[in-house]
Amino acid sequence: MGGLDPWRLVAFVALAGVTVVTRGFFFLSQRPWRLPHWAERGLQYAPIAALAAVVVPEIVMRDGALVQTWHDARLYAALAGAGWFFYRGGVLGTIVTGMAVYLPLRLGLGW
């Protein structure tokens, strides 16, 4: 692990070059560039898909395996938070409701 060998340096420079070219490619055109309608529509769902990809595994998995029991405070907190969101809306109320269910179950019952 001492020093930087030439192949690593070449790999780093090549990766940096690919990154600059792919990110700067859209600045090379002289005319405005628009995505096709289907791509714009698909990108509307990207934030919720990314959020689901981060949140859902935290709710349904523990130590790299699916939760095997219903005695998990995260499941009930997620259901309560989702219920609040669909009933009243608002992110703050969703967080408060989820934590109001999670904390007593986790700290009080040890789930």
TrEMBL record:
The chain crosses the membrane at residues 6-28, 48-65, 85-105. Keywords: Membrane, Transmembrane, Transmembrane helix. Pfam families: AzlD (PF05437). This is Branched-chain amino acid transport protein (AzlD). The lineage of its organism: Bacteria, Pseudomonadati, Pseudomonadota, Betaproteobacteria, Burkholderiales.
